[in-house]
Amino acid sequence: MQTVPDEVFKSLADPTRRAIFERLIRDGEQTVRALTDHAGVSQPMVSKHLGILKQAGLVRDRPAGRLVHYSAEPKGLAPMIDWMRHYSAFWQGRFDRLEDLLKRMDQ
Amino acid sequence: MNDTATETLSVVVERELPHAPEKIWRALTQPQLIEEWLMKSDFKPDVGHRFNLRGDWGGVLDCEVLAVEPNKKLSYTWNFDDAVNGLKSVVTWTLTPTSTGTHLRMEQAGFKPEQPQNYQGAKYGWQQFFAKLEQVLARAD
Question: Concatenated DSSP letters for A40-54?
């Protein structure tokens, strides 16, 4: 059984970070200030959350003068999807074994 | 459990099996049979019964029976308690009789690992999040 892609799950397990990520997905590129207006936490906290999201590969930043613009990187979710696929493979294998067992139960 | 959220990101495996639901039910609910195809367990088909599934790799899953409808539906939690790689999910088996046997469906829903103290609060957030994930991935290409 596979281990969870830690970075992605951990970064999205926090409701504030998830809200920031969802907002970037929905509304496109934004500055830290614009994100702070909706986040309900201070600007340094938003910056900290963005740093964690960036480290997990879920957002990218684009400095423009004194401002930094952030946008979502949906491809960063791929490890999570891969992890789900491993579970699917696990169950396909167990179904094969179940079928073998059911055949043996006939005898 | 049939809302968009669980349909989108749960793992679903379905098969047509040339066996009666009653027989498949035995394979799903009798510990000595469960061990032959899934894992060692102390399962009992009683709602609220807590049991473990012990994998070959040494992992132990904490489970609790959530629903039992003999020959039709079986549901239990499938939780892996680990500070780093914890998993909380629900496995639901649905047996539907067909003209040639049974349509067996397994759904493992609720992939939402998070710190236990955040579990209840984060639960609904994850469901909403997963509901949107398919759209997100469609746009990622």
Answer: SS-HHHHHHHHHHHH
